[in-house]
């Protein structure tokens, strides 16, 4: 059977023909592929196994970072047997081989970059996860710090209340002591007054007695 296809889309100068050649050779097909002036690609593939031609039909519908097949016009007919292998028909002056090779390298590079981005994305996810864990621990530490500050404030309030109470008690006791001191001073003053009066009375009495003694001595002519 012969499979003929006209492929439209982004299929020229992007390595599409090289990919199709690889697919055809892998399936053991014979034929050719060439670029048309209208931007399409023509494919002829012949093989004895119709299933392989169906697989080939599905496989040439390629869509990736470089190649994009938008439509395929296809038909089947009897094989002519004119092809000995599957290859590219290259127009005169066309640098298709080097372009296909470069496109292949570019595709491998894009694949490597995508893989690197996936790995980097995974590492970034791990870093973000660790960052979230660190932030969670930081929140826990801040929560404990707040609890500790609340306890310190509570302790200070309790201590301040006890100090105020002690000051009140001490102030009351000082007032009592001062009041007793005032009472003692008054008592001492009263005692001093009484002693002064008693002393004055004693002196007066002593003077009176001495006067009487002098009078008696004079009366007897002693003095």
Fraction of residues in helix? 55-70%
Order of SSEs: EHEEHEEH
The separation of the N and C termini measures 187 Å
Number of domains: 2
Low-confidence stretches: none
Mean pLDDT: 83
For this structure, the CATH topology of the largest domain is Alpha-Beta Plaits
**Main beta sheet: strand number and arrangement?**
5 strands, mixed
Kindly list the characteristics that best describe this protein.
223 residues, Alpha-Beta Plaits, 2 domains, 5-stranded mixed β-sheet, 3 helices, 65% helix
Write the SSE topology.
Layout: E1 2-10, H1 16-27, E2 30-35, E3 41-46, H2 50-59, E4 68-77, E5 86-89, H3 96-219
Parallel strand pairs: 2-5
Antiparallel strand pairs: 1-3, 1-4, 2-3
Helix pairs in contact: 1-2
Summarize the structure.
The protein is an alpha+beta fold. It has helices spanning 16-27, 50-59, 96-219, and strands at 2-10, 30-35, 41-46, 68-77, 86-89. It has a 5-stranded mixed β-sheet with strand order 4-1-3-2-5, covered by helices on one side.
Explain what the structure shows.
This protein is of the alpha+beta class and 223 residues long. The protein folds into two domains: 2-93, Alpha-Beta Plaits; 95-185. The protein is 65% helix and 16% strand. It has helices at residues 16-27, 50-59, 96-219; strands spanning 2-10, 30-35, 41-46, 68-77, 86-89. A five-stranded mixed beta sheet has the order 4-1-3-2-5, with helices on one face. The chain is rod-shaped and about 195 Å long.
């Amino acid at each position: 059977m012969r499979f003929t296809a006209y492929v439209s889309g982004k299929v020229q100068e992007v390595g599409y023909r090289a990919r199709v050649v690889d697919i055809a050779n892998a399936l053991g097909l014979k034929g050719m592929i060439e670029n048309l002036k209208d931007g399409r690609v023509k494919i002829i593939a012949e093989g004895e196994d119709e299933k392989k031609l169906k697989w080939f039909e599905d496989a040439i519908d390629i869509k990736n970072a470089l190649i994009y097949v938008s439509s395929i016009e296809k038909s089947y007919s009897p094989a002519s047997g004119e092809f000995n292998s599957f290859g590219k028909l290259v127009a005169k002056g066309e640098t298709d081989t080097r372009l296909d090779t470069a496109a292949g390298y570019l595709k491998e590079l894009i694949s490597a970059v995508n893989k690197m981005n996936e790995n980097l994305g995974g590492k970034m996810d791990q870093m973000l996860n660790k960052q979230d864990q660190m932030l969670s621990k930081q929140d826990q530490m801040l929560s404990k710090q707040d609890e500790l500050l609340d306890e310190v404030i509570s302790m200070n309030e309790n201590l301040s209340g006890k100090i105020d109470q002690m000051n009140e008690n001490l102030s009351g006791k000082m007032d009592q002591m001062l009041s007793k001191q005032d009472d003692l001073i008054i008592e001492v003053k009263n005692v001093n007054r009484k002693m002064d009066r008693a002393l004055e009375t004693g002196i007066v009495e002593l003077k009176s007695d001495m006067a009487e003694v002098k009078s008696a001595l004079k009366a007897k002519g002693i003095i």
